[in-house]
Design goal:
Blueprint (H helix, E strand, L loop, with lengths): L5 E7 L4 E5 L4 H8 L17 E5 L1 E3 L4 E3 L9 H4 L12 E2 L9 E4 L9 E2 L9 E2 L4 E7 L11 H13 L5 E2 L4 H10 L3 E7 L3 E7 L6 E7 L3 E8 L5 E8 L9 H10 L3 H23 L7 E8 L1 H8 L19 E4 L12 E4 L9 H10 L17 E5 L4 E7 L2 E7 L20 E7 L6 E5 L11 H4 L6 E2 L1 H13 L20 E4 L2 E7 L1 H4 L6 E3 L1 H25 L6 E5 H4 L4 H7 L10 E5 L1 H11 L1 H13 L1 E3 L7 H8 L28 H15 L4
Parallel strand pairs: 1-7, 11-13, 14-17, 17-19, 20-29, 22-31, 23-25, 29-30
Antiparallel strand pairs: 1-2, 3-6, 3-7, 4-5, 8-9, 10-12, 12-13, 14-15, 15-16, 18-19, 20-21, 21-22, 23-24, 26-27, 27-28
Length: about 700
């Protein structure tokens, strides 16, 4: 074999193969074949992104025998490499290693540009990275006397020659940055290119990290994820309380505030933008980064949050026809939203679906894969009926099946998050989050946030350093469901109502009764007694009935009486016991093994849109074909709502739930609030002497 011979090179896992002249660099071979091999520095041995792993031996499948001398030995470039990514003994830099014989070369996942991203903390599914912003190192030739070319044009020419990038544009405000960077970098600079069309930033020398932030602006919490745009790594996650809560717990109360206080929308916008800016600072601090590294942000939120953080008037959303100011995706300079980041940082806002179904729901659709097009599944009629519910102060509901996707919003109010509950609180240390009630004795046991053991187990008192401080949303759902399972609560939601069991835990509370969930005298801990009152139960009934009625409307529109899969999304949905949620009647009957929490799907969808330009385009198309249902305008909503006030429901059966838990018989036919109140008054009078 002579040095003029060509050698067969096979790249895995892509399987791409080709013959190359002796001495061809592995990176050049990969580029010629279209192999997905990353590089920021353009083959200068600086960034370390093009690392590959050659394998040696006999490969009958490829007809290759590869020996160690089929690859050049390490030279100066690799021996002196000091990049961010360590170069292990088994790996080589594709820009330095040369082909000296037949080879099989593996491209590790972290060296692929369009790599599949798998994250445990944020469920991104099978996402392939498709960066919106990429970094490219370029060597710009020195100016000469025999040409009259500006530095910006010289930079663009170099990008075209070294990276095969043509038709690029740039902003006039970058001219000074280009001059300074070329001088400071000794004619070597890193540029950031957005959408393969626009140079948006330039730095001297090598810069191999650009950051992006995905933000879910919820009515209660603003949650953010900081990502490396080049690798897809989630570097930091944090959240802050939405300061707009001081203007109103729920969305409509904030709209009312704006209506009644001229200039109120400016207050709300200023408050949420200040928190967004604080969030950015917290995230970059966690990752030991700087705001100047942040080049891209994605924001999602419900329509009212969407309008308020963008500075639009939310009052048209307060009544029919619920007109959005804009429903399409937006791309805005971060500085226009008072976000301190790189001067070229842009904010991408996902499209809204309808007047009460926002960009956060579009993100949920993106994260849960409910948006399968007909060509993506051969037999849409056989596709499972899938339901996703993002539970919060305003529940978003998405139902898919038979090639259709339907979406709606239901006004559940803040009860699920502990508001409107007598001992309610947010999910913080000391809050009761799990409850079980003995059906024989009526005695409760519970868990609090921050303590693994149950209240009746050894070590609980010692571990409960915060004491028992209240009950959060997941706890109130469980206690109401458990009260019904234990026979202490009627199907009409009346504590100690007709046909229920007596218990020393049931206490008279004026004309109604309450259930004593926790008494500090029993444990020796500090704190207040925690009672579940009749008003607490009623608040939960109203919230769960609104949610169920919204689900039922979508099922009617799809023409189905059952669902095959249910996913509970959102921070609150992630902590709900799915069995107790079904017992309560929060969701319809479904195979318990196919009811699951999917975490913050809106946040995950925002991260997907941050890391993939192709996914942004896809969700924009999907949103245009989603069928929108306005629950407030549907005449059957009220009927569904009244039926769903019963626990678990006035008429619906739960055969699949019954395979997991024994449900009580419906001892009382639920007929509506008026009859419920009459029964309550009669029961209160009859039980007064029993307590």
């Amino acid at each position: 074999m002579t040095n003029t011979d060509e050698h067969l090179v096979v790249f895995t896992p892509s399987g791409l193969r080709g013959s190359f002249p002796h001495g061809t660099k592995v990176l050049d071979a990969a580029r010629q074949l279209g192999v997905d091999l990353d590089s920021v520095c353009g083959g200068r041995g600086i960034c370390g992104r093009c690392q590959v792993e050659p394998t040696f031996g006999e490969f009958a499948k490829h007809g290759i025998t590869a020996n160690t001398n089929h690859l050049s030995t390490r030279g100066v470039t690799e021996n002196e490499y000091k990049g961010r990514r360590a170069l292990t003994d088994s790996r080589r830099l594709g820009c330095a290693a040369m082909v000296f014989g037949d080879l099989v070369v593996d491209v590790p996942a972290e060296s692929q540009i369009n790599r599949q991203i798998v994250r445990k903390d944020v469920n991104l599914g099978d996402l392939e990275l498709d960066p919106v912003v990429v970094l490219r190192l370029v060597q710009v030739p020195d100016p000469t006397l025999d040409e009259s070319v500006g530095e910006v044009r010289r930079l663009m020419t170099a990008l075209g020659e070294q990276w095969n990038l043509g038709e690029l544009r740039t902003s006039d405000i970058l001219v000074s940055d280009v001059q300074r960077a070329l001088t400071a970098g000794n004619r070597t600079v890193t540029v950031a290119i957005r959408d393969d069309r626009e140079v948006v930033a330039v730095w001297p020398g090598l810069r191999d990290r650009a950051l992006g932030i995905a933000v879910d602006v919820g009515s209660t919490t603003i949650a953010g994820h900081l990502c490396d745009l080049a690798t897809g790594a989630v570097l930091a996650t944090t959240g802050v309380m939405n300061p707009q809560i001081r203007f109103g717990e729920d969305l409509m109360s904030r709209v009312s505030y704006v209506m009644m206080n001229p200039g109120g929308e400016i207050e709300l916008t200023t408050a949420v933008r200040a928190s967004l800016n604080q969030l950015v600072g917290d995230l970059v601090d966690q990752a030991n980064g700087t705001r100047d590294e942040v080049l891209e942000l994605v924001l999602v939120g419900n329509p009212i949050m969407h309008h308020l953080f963008l500075g639009y008037d939310p009052t048209p959303l307060g009544g029919a026809p619920f007109a959005l100011a804009v429903d399409e995706a937006l791309n805005l300079p971060a500085r226009e939203l008072s976000i301190e980041a790189h001067q070229a940082a842009r904010v991408h806002v996902l499209p809204c679906i309808a007047g009460h179904v926002g960009a956060d729901t579009a993100a949920v659709v993106l994260a849960t894969g409910l948006d399968l097009n007909k060509e993506e599944r051969e037999d849409q009629k056989s596709a499972p009926i899938r339901l996703v519910v993002d539970v919060g102060t305003n529940a978003e509901i998405v139902l898919s099946g038979a090639g259709r996707v339907l979406a709606a919003s239901s006004p559940t109010g803040p009860a699920f998050e502990g508001a409107q509950i007598s001992s309610g609180q947010r999910a913080t240390y000391g809050a009761i989050e799990r409850v079980r009630i003995n059906p024989v004795t009526g005695e409760p046991r519970f868990q609090i946030i921050g303590v693994d053991s149950w209240s009746d187990e050894d070590g609980f008192v010692e571990a409960a350093v915060t004491g028992v401080t209240g009950i959060c949303g997941s706890g109130i759902i469980e206690v109401v469901a458990e009260l019904w399972l234990a026979g202490l609560l009627g199907a009409d939601g009346v504590i100690g109502g007709a046909g229920t069991k007596p218990s020393t835990r049931i206490e008279s509370d004026g004309r109604t009764f309450s259930y004593l969930l926790y008494d500090p005298a029993d444990s020796g801990l500090d704190g207040e007694r925690i009672l579940v009152t009749q008003n607490d139960v009623r608040a939960i009934q109203l919230a769960k009935a609104a949610l169920y009625a919204g689900i039922r409307l979508l099922m009617d529109r799809l023409g189905t009486n059952s669902v095959d899969e249910i996913s509970l999304a959102g921070a609150f949905g992630s902590h709900i016991d799915t069995i107790r949620a079904t017992v309560l009647g929060l969701i319809p009957d479904c195979d318990p093994d196919r009811v699951a929490s999917v975490g913050n799907a809106a946040g995950a969808g925002a991260v997907i849109a941050l890391l993939s330009g192709s996914e942004r385009k896809r969700i924009a198309k999907v949103v245009s074909r989603i069928e929108k249902i306005e629950t407030a305008l549907e005449p059957t909503f009220q009927n569904h709502f009244v039926d769903a006030m019963a626990i678990p429901h006035r008429t619906a059966d739960y055969p699949q739930l019954s395979t997991q838990i024994t449900l009580p018989e419906r001892l009382i036919e639920f007929t509506g609030p008026e009859q419920t109140n009459r029964r309550r008054r009669r029961k209160s009078a009859s039980r007064e002497g029993d307590i």
